[in-house]
Specification:
The structure holds two protein chains of two kinds.
Chain A (H helix, E strand, L loop, with lengths): L1 H20 L2 E3 L6 E3 L2 H6 L2 H34 L4 H14 L4 H12 L4 H9 L12 H25 L3 H9 L4 H30 L2 H7 L6 H9 L8 H33 L1
Antiparallel strand pairs in A: 1-2
Chain B lengths: L1 H20 L5 H6 L17 H11 L1 E5 L8 H12 L2 E5 L5 H10 L9 E4 L1 H9 L3 E2 L21 E13 L22 E3 L7 H13 L8 H12 L3 E2 L5 H5 L5 E5 H13 L4 E4 L7 E9 L5 H11 L2 H9 L3 E2 L2 H7 L4 H6 L12 H19 L2
Parallel strand pairs in B: 1-2, 6-7, 6-8
Antiparallel strand pairs in B: 3-10, 4-10, 5-8, 5-9, 5-10, 5-11
Helix pairs in contact in B: 1-3, 3-11, 7-8, 8-15
Classes of the chains: A mainly alpha, B alpha/beta.
């Protein structure tokens, strides 16, 4: 019961408030508020629609890349049974880097490969090759920055699952004459699939909800929902745009809800298939 | 309301007692005992004069301010000077907050001790606050010096300080500082032109777009030309999307920043210490100015301190603090006539050529809609 009370106060209540406020509108000349679906309709169109698509694109790309690279790294370090120091170093570093985000991360990248960054200056002035068309302020650039904290996050979340793969299974498979591919296809893969998919979803949600890094790096030049929510909620310019921000937030919650439902469905399927 | 009345009454009585205990003149206790109510007083006179107001404010002992960055328009000095002069503690909440954050705080923290006492908001938000009855009308002693078109006739809000859109420029990164919007389309400024914030959110950026519009055959009725201008800056490869902070300026990441002249000018001395020369020009082709407003919250937990703060802001001393921060105080014309304006600071103000017009509320509302509809759609991706 205390858990549910906690959940109700800190999770359910804000959701309901946001959902209700999304249907309020403030008239820009009289400042009277009234019930209206204008905000909800507005966020499905034009720049807001593009912001959702932009956020989805960025999150899907970074989640998939982060999951693949993170999984590879995690497998590599979990295989190194001998060098425990290296393994611990990587895990600690991952723990630190997974939480390295926001403004400091943005500034670290700016100082390195921004327009006036050290690496940029070195490549351009000393080697004369420049960044080869790479821009930190593009979708690619932002993806690279996101991967910087998403890959460690993947390593952290997937390592326990990799450790649950018992060496005996591998030995048993080898004794029965299975190849490495067959082992991963029929034993390792199915066991790992649910946690890998789950971790990918986590990465997706993380990238989808990230805000401060993108805010400092790209401002309005890449359409992202979180940036638009902040613009609408704490505007110094447009009066009465709060409901728009809340409508955008409601849309985000719906999208995340869909993703979670999909995850639950996948997991149920895999589990049924496993048993 | 009743509770705050009671508290104010106690405050006034306590002030009277303290004074008597200190062996002061008996004049204070008569005004203190009159039962005047700071929470509804519309002028210092209604409270029994400046001395009574000071006493009541000192008794409250604290002032809650919100969304006042110390590096913005000399607010740091303003707050320190006020606090020292009257021995009133300042609780500063959310220094980087926005106007809508301020109004949200007034509504959501109503009745709490930490609710904001005073507000500093853009004009649209001042109008909203007045319409939603969040402000307490108050006329400072120098009310008559504020031009009529720069204050609410009912005294719910009043212009205080303002400035013009300017182009800040790092001379170690930029060879020739641009002095107009037209020049910023030049290829030599590749990836250098930054706007301070997103115009759908930041007033400075919004005004920057408007100034750009004026520079490109737009008008106060047509902000769209300004958006067209920034789209062409972006197409020319000159637009820099980085959020401007003193750190990005110092590192050279944002060599050119379009912002209020007082914000850009405020960076000069900080950057000088770091070895960066920051030059400020008001563009010759697009002059756009705007003022920020002061207002008192109707639900101020420290009503007397709130009123004293306004008196201080609009006193010669307060107005000169704005001037030293290189913003233009609203009483500037009157002070020039009276010879009370700080001459040195006056000389340091960036020069402005041409006449200046301020948008009306209608034009403002229309422009907001245009920017909200077009900016993110055309500038992103």
């Amino acid at each position: 019961v205390p858990f549910f009370a906690y959940l109700a106060v800190f999770l359910l209540l804000p959701v309901v408030v946001v959902a209700v406020e999304a249907f309020r509108a403030t008239d820009p000349t009289t400042f009277q508020t009234s019930w209206s679906t204008a905000s909800i309709v507005a966020v499905t169109k034009g720049p807001y629609r593009r912001a959702y698509l932009g956020s989805l694109e960025l999150s899907v790309i970074t989640a998939v890349l982060g999951a693949v690279l993170g999984l590879a790294l995690a497998v590599a370090i979990s295989r190194t049974r001998r060098n425990l120091l290296l393994r611990r170093l990587v895990l600690t570093a991952a723990g630190v880097l997974a939480n390295f985000g926001g403004l400091p991360l943005a500034f670290a990248f700016l100082a390195t490969i921004g327009n006036a960054g050290i690496l940029t200056a070195f490549l351009t002035d000393t080697l004369g090759i420049g960044l080869g068309g790479f821009s930190l302020f593009s979708l690619t650039g932002l993806s690279v920055v996101y991967l910087y904290f998403l890959i460690p996050l993947m390593v952290l979340t997937i390592t326990p699952a990799l450790e649950a793969l018992r060496p005996q299974w591998r030995e048993a498979a080898d004794n029965l004459g299975a190849t490495g591919w067959q082992y991963w296809r029929y034993v390792g893969g199915p066991v790992l699939a649910p946690p890998v998919i789950g971790a990918t979803m986590l990465l997706f949600a993380s990238a989808f909800a990230a805000y401060a890094t993108a805010y400092a790096l790209v401002g309005s030049s890449i359409p992202l929902v979180t940036l638009q929510i902040s613009d609408a909620l704490s505007s110094n310019v447009v009066v009465g745009s709060e409901s728009l921000g809340k409508a955008l937030a409601l849309g985000m919650m719906v999208l995340i809800g869909v993703v979670m439902a999909f995850y639950a469905w996948i997991q149920r399927r895999t589990q049924r298939w496993l048993s | 309301v009743r509770r705050s009345t009671l508290r104010a009454a106690i405050a006034v009585v306590t002030a009277g007692l303290t004074l008597t205990a200190c062996g002061g003149s008996s004049g204070g206790s008569s005004s203190g005992g009159s039962g005047a109510n700071a929470a509804t007083a519309t002028s210092a006179k209604a409270l029994g004069g400046m001395d009574a107001l000071v006493k009541a404010a000192k008794a409250e002992g604290a002032l809650n301010v919100i969304a006042l960055p110390p590096d913005w328009a000399n607010y740091g000095t303003m707050l320190d000077t006020f606090s020292k002069k009257y021995g009133i503690k300042i609780n500063s909440a959310l220094p980087d907050g926005s106007s809508s954050d301020e109004l949200a705080a007034v509504t959501s923290q109503k009745g709490q001790d930490r609710a904001p006492d005073v507000l500093d908001v853009g004009t649209s938000f001042a109008l909203q606050a007045a319409a939603q009855k969040l402000t307490a009308p108050y006329k400072v002693a120098t009310w008559g010096d504020i031009p009529d078109n720069q204050k609410d006739p009912k005294a719910n809000w009043y212009n205080d300080y303002g400035g013009f859109i300017s182009i800040g420029c790092n001379t170690s990164k930029v060879q020739v500082c641009p002095t107009s919007f037209k020049e910023m389309l030049d290829p030599q400024y590749a990836k250098q032109v930054a706007l301070n914030g997103n115009p759908t959110k930041a007033a400075a950026a919004f005004s920057g777009v408007w100034a750009a519009s004026l520079a490109n055959k737009g008008s106060l009725d047509d902000i769209g030309k300004g958006i067209d201008y920034f789209v062409s800056v972006k197409k020319a490869g000159n637009f820099n999307p980085v959020e401007v902070t003193p750190a990005t300026v110092q590192s050279g990441e944002t060599p050119i920043s379009i912002d209020w002249d007082y914000v850009n000018a405020g960076l000069v001395s900080t950057l000088q210490k770091a070895g960066v020369t920051w030059k400020v020009n008001v563009p010759t082709d697009g002059v756009f100015g705007s003022f920020y407003n002061q207002a008192i919250s109707k639900f101020a937990p420290h009503p007397a301190a709130a009123r004293l703060w306004e008196e201080f802001l609009y006193s010669d001393e307060g107005q000169n603090i704005w001037l030293k921060g290189l913003s233009r105080p609203v009483r500037l014309e009157a002070m020039k006539k009276a010879g009370t304006a700080d001459a040195e600071a006056l000389k340091a103000l960036p020069e402005v050529s041409g006449s200046v017009e301020f948008p009306t509320q209608d034009q403002q509302t229309k422009a907001q809609k245009v920017v909200a509809d077009r900016w993110n759609a055309e500038m992103s991706g």
